[in-house]
């Protein structure tokens, strides 16, 4: 996994609440057995005017001019500003895969759905929670100033605006540590093999029917 | 000893280790696997040269992509076919039990787990699917995970988790005639919102929940995720024990007695403290219909489509306006005047035998309305289908003009050929009314099985209490 330490990037605003993972990556693209290549289909139904199917050349498809990410000023954005309950719905990890493949490294929203939030950390994306009034302010500033960029510092746990204002955010120490160093969860867990075996041995005694 | 909630008990009994920040390594007893969220996990295992930790903990089946007609021809879509073939190959390579597409026991993972007795009280159970919360109906700690975690569980039998806060949803009293488990959970989501349960594990309790069958409890726990909660659960009682007795994977003989004795302890202690308590009196719940593009956009069937001008805040106003535009609805329209083009009875929320019985009771002796292009009944598993046929439900549906299909996820998410065309409106017993969920441009209204059957025969929503 790519480590995340500090990132400065252009901000794109997606001003709607409850953006679900079906919207982030529609189901027809979930038929892929790969982990990569979902970026061109991120937000497919909002982004293009035609019907999206796997295997299309997305560079030739008609773009929806009304969709915010299609505006020239947000091209190359790597920080997505969103509203509450972002990533709700299906557990599909294809959603963070699509966002990452599109180029997003960090998300900022007042809240996220649990499974999606968790999935982001497994893919080097930092989902930042900031209070709703701060998110409101960032929406206003982003929309008011083309080229608006933020600096996210995971080490310091801050989001800094171009005029130097900084907002602190919370993140679990363990998640922060793993993301800062790009650590592989399975590798870490397998250093606990003895504890897992001991647990299993005890449970086999106490609740043997679980191990039939 | 302090009084503990059911969630506390399930959590405490599965902690293997705790990191300094409180993140715990949790042991996973059961792992359900389907074709969509597993191929990249198996690939990861192979690249790292790892093997599944405990093959007996895994049960796999293809459900999302499978066709509901013409199974003997195989899967026509080559992309879907490859995904299902990949699951078959992975299960064969790693020695995992799989109910393949042609197996009589194949079905939606969240239907076959309980049906086989693979899901049991006191377990932790995961699946790469958000509706894994369904299994909490058996007093199990069950939740959906992403593909990285699918790989993690396969490799280590564990997951790193932060303990959630606890919420008790108390539904006391008696449900009115024609009001079902689906209406309880839709009414709850309408009340607390789709993020109301975020960060919580919800226990459903109260006399109305205790009165529900296991099927009804599964419907409610299934949609806990739609309230934002990863896990929903119900305490063990006689319904739970009776349901599991004699199931293929349930313990037998002395182990059965030992298990049941343990299972009976799986309830919140008297005086256990919850972080939040929500009371939802059963008597006030009416049959529900969603009008928008989020399950929280829901009103009783005798209500009207709301007016964005009355939304509580600016963000919601924008959401409501967009939802009405997408749904092609005007504010103040009575719900009973909304016509439907298609009807879908199925999904991991409502495709069990009791759901089909409720729908068939409404369909019996009636005909699907002329304006309805397609009314689909998709049983949740091969065994549910078999049972329904033994009871003659298939005949009732077919005589009424419904199509009787093979089991799978089908039009809940339209990964197979069952889908809505742009602009089509559907009365659906599934769980999500998101934009495009049932097909690009499709418009979904979530309802109970009886309400869906009633919409099919009348061609528009009707109050099922006036029909039965």
What would you note in describing this structure?
The complex is a heterodimer of chains A (212) and B (468). With 212 residues, chain A is of the alpha/beta class. Chain A contains 8 helices and 7 strands, in the order E-H-H-E-H-E-H-E-H-E-E-E-H-H-H. A 7-stranded mixed beta sheet of chain A has the order 4-3-2-1-5-6-7. Chain B contains 15 helices and 19 strands. The chains are: A alpha/beta (212), B alpha/beta (468). At the A-B interface, helix 4, helix 6, helix 7 and helix 8 of A face helix 2, helix 3, helix 5, helix 10 and helix 11 of B.
Low-confidence segments of chain A = none
Low-confidence stretches of chain B: none
Number of helices of chain A: 8
Strand content of chain A is 5-15%
What is this entry, summarized?
The complex is a heterodimer of chains A (212) and B (468). Chain A is of the alpha/beta class.
Tags for this entry?
heterodimer, A: 212 residues, alpha/beta, seven-stranded mixed sheet, 8 helices, 7 strands, 31% helix, 14% strand, B: 468 residues, five-stranded parallel sheet
Strand-helix topology:
The complex is a heterodimer of chains A (212) and B (468).
Chain A: E1 6-13, H1 21-24, H2 44-47, E2 79-81, H3 94-102, E3 106-109, H4 114-121, E4 126-129, H5 132-144, E5 149-153, E6 158-160, E7 166-168, H6 173-181, H7 185-189, H8 193-206
Chain B: H1 6-12, E1 15-18, E2 24-27, E3 30-33, H2 39-48, E4 58-60, H3 78-94, E5 97-98, H4 109-115, E6 124-127, E7 141-144, H5 147-156, E8 158-161, E9 165-170, H6 181-192, E10 200-205, H7 207-210, H8 214-222, E11 231-233, H9 238-244, H10 253-263, E12 276-279, E13 288-290, E14 298-300, H11 314-327, E15 342-345, H12 353-363, E16 374-377, H13 382-390, H14 393-400, E17 403-404, E18 425-428, E19 443-446, H15 449-458
Parallel strand pairs in B: 3-4, 3-6, 4-5, 6-7, 9-10, 9-12, 10-11, 15-16, 15-18, 16-17, 18-19
Antiparallel strand pairs in B: 1-2, 2-8, 13-14
Helix pairs in contact in B: 2-5, 6-8, 12-14, 12-15
């Amino acid at each position: 996994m790519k480590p995340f330490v500090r990132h400065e990037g252009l901000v794109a605003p997606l001003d709607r609440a409850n953006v679900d993972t079906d919207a982030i990556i529609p189901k027809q693209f979930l038929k892929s057995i790969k982990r990569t290549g979902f970026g061109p289909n991120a937000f497919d139904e909002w982004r293009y005017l035609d019907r999206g199917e796997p295997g299309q050349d997305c560079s030739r498809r008609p773009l929806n001019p009304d969709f915010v990410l299609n505006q020239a000023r947000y091209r190359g954005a790597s920080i997505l500003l969103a509203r509450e309950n972002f990533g709700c719905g299906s557990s599909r990890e294809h959603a963070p895969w699509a966002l990452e493949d599109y180029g997003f490294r960090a998300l900022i929203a007042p809240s996220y759905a649990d499974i999606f939030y968790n999935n982001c950390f497994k893919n080097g994306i930092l989902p930042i929670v900031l209070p709703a009034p701060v998110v409101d302010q960032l929406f206003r500033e982003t929309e008011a100033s083309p080229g608006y960029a933020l600096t996210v510092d995971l080490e310091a746990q801050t989001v800094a605006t171009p005029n130097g204002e900084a907002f602190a955010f919370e993140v679990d120490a363990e998640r922060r540590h793993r993301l800062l160093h790009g650590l592989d969860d399975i590798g870490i867990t397998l250093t606990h093999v003895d504890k897992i075996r001991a647990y299993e041995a005890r449970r086999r005694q106490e609740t043997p029917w679980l191990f039939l | 000893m302090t009084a503990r909630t059911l969630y506390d008990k399930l959590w405490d009994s599965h902690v293997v280790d705790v990191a300094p920040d409180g993140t715990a390594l949790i042991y996973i007893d059961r792992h359900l696997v389907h074709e969509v969220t597993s191929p990249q996990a198996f690939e990861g295992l192979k690249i790292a040269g790892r093997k599944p930790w405990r093959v007996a903990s895994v049960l796999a089946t293809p459900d999302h992509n499978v066709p509901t007609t013409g199974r003997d021809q195989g899967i026509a879509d080559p992309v879907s076919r490859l995904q299902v073939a990949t699951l078959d190959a992975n299960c064969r390579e790693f020695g995992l039990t799989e109910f393949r597409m042609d197996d009589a026991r194949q079905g939606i993972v969240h239907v076959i787990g309980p049906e086989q007795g693979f899901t049991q009280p006191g377990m932790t159970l995961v699946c790469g699917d958000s509706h894994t919360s369904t299994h909490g109906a058996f007093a199990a700690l069950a939740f959906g995970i992403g593909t990285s975690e699918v790989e993690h569980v396969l490799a280590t039998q564990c997951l790193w988790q932060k303990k959630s806060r606890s919420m008790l949803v108390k539904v006391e009293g008696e449900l009115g005639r024609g009001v079902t488990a689906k209406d309880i959970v839709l009414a709850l989501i309408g009340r607390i919102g789709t993020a109301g349960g975020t960060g919580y594990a919800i226990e459903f309790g109260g006399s109305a929940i205790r009165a529900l069958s296991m099927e009804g409890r599964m419907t409610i726990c299934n949609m806990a995720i739609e309230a934002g909660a990863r896990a929903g659960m119900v305490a063990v009682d006689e319904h739970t024990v009776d349901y599991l007795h004699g199931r293929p994977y349930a313990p037998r003989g002395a182990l059965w007695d030992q298990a049941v004795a343990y299972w009976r302890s799986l309830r919140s202690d008297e005086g256990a403290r919850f972080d939040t308590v929500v009371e939802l009196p059963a008597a006030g719940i009416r049959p529900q219909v969603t009008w928008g593009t989020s399950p929280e956009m829901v009103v009783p069937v005798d209500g009207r489509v709301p007016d964005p001008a009355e939304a509580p805040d600016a963000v919601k106003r924008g959401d409501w306006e967009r939802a009405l535009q997408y749904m092609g609805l005007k504010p103040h329209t009575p719900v009973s005047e909304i016509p439907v083009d298609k009807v879908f009875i199925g999904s991991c929320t409502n495709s069990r035998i009791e759901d089909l019985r409720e729908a068939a009771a409404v369909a019996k002796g009636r005909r699907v309305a002329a304006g309805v292009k397609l009314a689909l009944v998709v049983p949740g598993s091969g065994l549910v289908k078999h049972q329904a046929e033994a009871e003659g439900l298939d005949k009732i549906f077919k005589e009424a003009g419904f199509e009787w299909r093979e089991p799978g996820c089908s039009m809940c998410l339209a990964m197979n050929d069952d889908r809505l065309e742009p602009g089509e409106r559907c009365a659906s017993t599934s769980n999500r009314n998101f934009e495009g969920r049932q097909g690009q441009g499709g418009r979904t209204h979530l309802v109970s099985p009886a309400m869906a059957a009633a919409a099919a025969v009348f061609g528009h929503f009707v109050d099922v209490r006036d029909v039965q």
